[in-house]
Amino acid sequence: MNRHVDLTGALCRTSSHSDNGGRCVELAPGFPGVMPVRDSKDPEGPARVFPAGAWQAFVAAAARGESGAV
Q1: Is the pLDDT of residue 1 over 60?
Q2: Can you tell me the distance from the alpha carbon of 53 to that of 31, in angstroms, rounded to the nearest whole number?
Q3: What pLDDT, in 10s, does the model give residues 34-64?
Q4: Residue 2 domain-assigned (yes or no)
Q5: Which residue, among 55, 53, 52, has the nearest Cα to 69 in the 3D structure?
Q6: Given its phi and psi angles, is residue 30 left (phi above 0), alpha (psi -120 to 50 degrees) or beta?
Q7: Residue 46 lies in a domain
Q8: What does the pLDDT read at residue 19?
Q9: How many CB atoms are located within 10 Å of the residue 3 CB?
């Protein structure tokens, strides 16, 4: 996927399960078909934009404890 997503004004959020130890990502939900993700330690840095299905599969695998997901 090589699609430009304008993240100007995106409202990012950190998970309520964040350990506050700097190992967090911030999400910017609300973009149809994609999930923008950025490093919480670098909020002005770049965001990675994943296809929504791939992000959902990653989250599901992480919830199941699959080691390849984290």
Answers
A1: no
A2: 13
A3: 999 888 888 788 888 999 999 999 989 988 8
A4: no
A5: 55
A6: left
A7: yes
A8: 65
A9: 8
User: Is the model's pTM score more than 0.85?
Assistant: no
The answer to whether the beta carbons of residues 42 and 11 sit under 8 Å apart is no
Q: Is residue 25 part of a domain?
A: yes
Q: 49 near 40, Cβ under 8 Å?
A: no
User: 35, 25, 30: which is closest to 70 by C-alpha?
Assistant: 25
Is the residue at 38 inside a domain?
yes
* Interacting residues of 35 by C-beta distance below 8 A, sequence separation 6+: 27, 28, 29, 49, 50, 51, 52, 55
Token pair belonging to 2 = 């090589």
